[in-house]
Structure formats: C-alpha cells, structure tokens
Amino acid sequence: MKSRKKLVVSLIVGGIALAALIGGTIAYFQDTEISAGNIFKAGKFNLKIDNTCHYNGKVCVLDPTGSGKYFWQGTQEECFCTWSAKDLAGELFFNLLDVKPGDNGEDTISLHIENNDAWVCAAIGNLANDDNGCEKPESDIDQTCGAGEGELLSNLFFTVWKDTDCDNIWDEEIPGTPGTPGQPAEQILVQDKPAKAGYWSIADSSIGAPLKGDTTYCLGVKWNVPLATSNIIQTDSLLGDVIFSAVQSRNMDNFKCSDLFTEVCGDGKDNDYDGEIDENCIVCGDGEIEGDESCDDGNLEDGDGCLSTCLIQPGWQCEGEPSACAPLCAPETEICDGLDNDCDGAVDEEAIDALNWHTDKDGDNYGDPDYFVTACVAGPGYVLEDTDCNDFDLEINPGADEMAGDGIDSNCDGSDNPAPSWISPTGYFDNGGETGNRWINESNAYDNNTGTRSTAYVYATPGWGPFLELNLANPVSGDKLRYWMMAVVAGHYINQMDIDVYKDGFWQDVYQGPIDSSGAWVEHSYSFGVVSKVRVRLYNSFNNGLIYSRALDELQVWGY
C-alpha cells in the first residue's frame, strides 16, 4: 500500500512540474492585426499657364543657344510674351506699345491642371480705354480726349477658340470620306468682336465635363486692327486684366462660372467683371433711395435726420437724393433748394432766387425775350438764354452762321452783313528815288481787276528789298488776301516774298517764305480783323550785279 501511494504522489508532483513547464511558453490563443501610419493628406490642385505669342507674322521663341531668353524668330529682338507652364507673376499676354492699323497677332494659351479634374472659367476685367492726346491729324476727326474716351477698344477685334490640337490655328470642320465621320470644327468662344468686360465658361456644368487633371488644354486668341482704321486711334491705349480660375470638380457637380463671378454688394469691387461696381444692389449710405429706404444721405451716421438704417429719424424731415434732412419745419424764406422752406407744403414755389425761363419754340436753345416763366426749374421748351430774334425758325439765332447778302439777319446782330468781296489796295511805296533797292513803276503795282499785269522791279542786292506799301481806300474787315505773281523776267534769284497786313493798329505777318507758283491766284489767310494797309517785299539770294524781276499783280483783301 505504501508503494502505491508514493507512486500517486510522484505522478501528481510530476504533473505539476510539467504544467509549470508548459505554462512558461504558450499560455493562450493569440492573433494580432496592425494598421500603421494612418494619414489624411490634401490632394494637390494647381493651375499653371504657358503662352506662345505671334505678332505680325513673327513668333516669340526660346533662344536655341541656351541663354534662357526669348527672341522674335529670325531676329535678335528680345520678346517676353512666350513662357513655359508656370504660376503667373507679372507675365503679360499682350504688351504692345506701338500698335498701328493692319497689325495682327495670335497667342496660344495652354492651361495645365495639376493632379485633379477642374472646372475652368475665364474673365476680362478692369478695362481702361483711354485717349492720351488729341494732336493733329487725330484732332481733325476726334475732339474727345482723356480717360475713357479712347477709340482703340472698338477698333481692336478678337477671336477666341478652343484649340484642341494646340497648333494656334482654328481648324474648320473637315468632311470625312463617305460613311466615315469628319473632323469637327474647333469650338469658337468669341468671333471677331472687340474686347469687353465679363466672363465666360471654358468648362462648367452648364456646358459639359470638367477638364481632366494632368492634361494640357489650349485656347487660341487671334487679334487684329483693320488696315482701314483711321487716325482716330492715335495715342489711344487699352489696358485690362485677363483672369483664369480653376475650381475642383469633385463634390461640385453643379458648379457654374456664374457662382464664381457674382457681384458682392457693398465691397466696392467689380466681382462679376461687367465693368460696373455693386450694380443692382440696394446699399444704405450710397445716396440713392431704393427698396424700403425712406432716406439716404450718403452716410451711415445716426443723429443727422437719416438713420444708419436709411429710415427718417423721428422729428425730422428729409428730401432729395442724397437726402437733405432738417428738423420738422420752421418757416423761412423760400429759396431754390428742393426743400419746403416756408412750410406751406410746396417746394421752391415763389422762391426769391427763381430765374426767368424763356420759351424756346424752335428748339435751338435760344429763348424768346418777350415770353417767360419765373421758376427755379422749368420744364422742356424753356431756356435761360433770351436772345433769339425769331423763335419760330431753327436756323435763326445768335449762334447761327450769317448768310451775308440773303436779306435775313441770321445771327440776330441787327443787320444782314453785305457779301464780302475782293478789294484791291491803292497807293504805292516811294523812297525818294534812290538808286539802291527800291520799287520802280510803283503807281502801276495794282490794276483793279482790269486784267493788265503790271510790273514792279527790285535791284538785286542780296537780302530783303524794301516794302511796297499799299493803302486800302476804306479799311475793311476780313481774314484773307491773295496776289498774282507772273513768271521771272530775268534771272531766278528772287526766290522769297514777305506779305504783312496792318490790322487793328499793328502790322501782322501773313506769309513769309518761298514764292508760290506763278500765273495763278495764291491765297493766304490771317486772323479776322480790320485791315487798312498791306505791304510786300522780295528777297534776293544772290548778287551778280544784274537786275532780276517778277511781275506782280494787285494784292487783294477779302472783306466787307
């Protein structure tokens, strides 16, 4: 019995030892799964633009020598309107400072959307169409100058198309062979139109699918100034911004470019690039009464009669735009200010500073002095000017041109001036019979339109000869004269002449220079005035001891 117990105990002790040994290596079932390095990272989204430009048949290309510069192809003239894909930092598609009629150019603009599909919109904004001077010959046809008065915008025409093959050429539709579809024409976005502020969709939900990421899309832009454009564009300038915008298309299936270019009221910006700021906005404080506003004095201050909510402050009254506000009425003298100064319920009636408004029946802006109404402002058909002598004839008023000799006082000056005529001077220059430079046959230096060409000689010492001075029997008012110069009698060195008129008390130069053609009337103009004398002298450029001459007909003045 003892031996059996020992065996049992030994087995028990041995089992405990074995269990202890097993427990030290595998105590339970186990399975481990690990997700390491979890991260959220925003995707890359970037619009880059490149450009290749042409101007008058030349293309701006990269220098093949590796200088990194761009030159007009075939020249050493550097250009700056071509660049590779980049974020724009001051680059200009157009920077042309000497545009002339007949000029033209093309640009291929490439859009690159990095990594993600995108909607893309384009806009033109901040246009400034200015006329920077009105010098001749532009001033002959254009008298409007200054900011906003330019004509270049209306004479500069653009065509824009989707250049699917990026070759800067608009590809028309090419028919296919029978049974085979042809090549569709590239889509034109703008055709032969002047630039204008605004935006258009290159790709949005209203016209199709977004542009694919990491794909190049090209726009072709062609411009020209017609050769027939006149001097009216001289010194004009056209400035503006070209804006490209890209918006992610994922999670924005219904995006439209109009969502991006929407006017924001009150920010003072042209958000929709239409050339107007805050249009169609009701803005309190802009001086205009709109919507539910009962006043708008041009500010947002309280305590001045018009509250910051554009409502009239209790105890005040407001009139006009911008609103002029005052405490409730205290009678004063009525004046022309758009207010009820005398508190009688009427505005500007019997104002002490009212004016006489004269009837203008013929609409020439000159009123009848005998018919008028007294008011601050009169309606149509009344003017302040009261000097019309015939208010029933549009062609008769102080600003009309006088048709002299027609029996009508067209300009209301009290008379119909006689028709002007050519009036010959009389008298002659006499320097006492000296043998030096002088005129000979002075008394025959005019002929009163008899057709006889009389001759006056001058000795040929170098320089200017003496003046032949002629009087007008009766001083006349006029603004031009004429003379007849015959051919050279001997020699050819008398080659200049000088003509003056004695006008309004002093001599005024009319012409000094080469002798004009012989055998015809030559006419010169001067400023209008009363002329009592004319004088003429000739210039000899060479002295060889001989006498040279020209036959001089009468000098005539055009006057009344």
Description:
The protein is mainly beta and 560 residues long. It is built from two helices and 25 strands. It has helices at residues 2-23, 257-260; strands at 46-55, 58-62, 70-72, 83-86, 104-114, 118-131, 157-162, 188-194, 198-203, 216-224, 236-248, 316-319, 324-327, 355-359, 372-375, 382-383, 421-423, 455-459, 463-464, 468-490, 494-503, 506-514, 521-540, 547-552, 556-559. The strands form five sheets. Strands 17, 18, 19, 20, 21, 22, 23, 24 and 25 form a nine-stranded antiparallel sheet that branches. Mean pLDDT is 79; it is low at 1-24 and 429-457.
Oligomer: single chain
The stretches of 5 or more residues where confidence is low (pLDDT under 50) are 1-24, 429-457
**Secondary structural class:** mainly beta
The SSE string, one letter per element, is HEEEEEEEEEEEHEEEEEEEEEEEEEE
Number of helices: 2
* Helical content class: under 10%
Strand content: 25-35%
Distance between the termini: 174 Å
Radius of gyration: 46 Å
How many beta-strand runs? Answer: 25
Largest pleated sheet: 9 strands, antiparallel
Q: Give the averaged pLDDT, no decimals.
A: 79
Which descriptor suits the 3D outline? flat
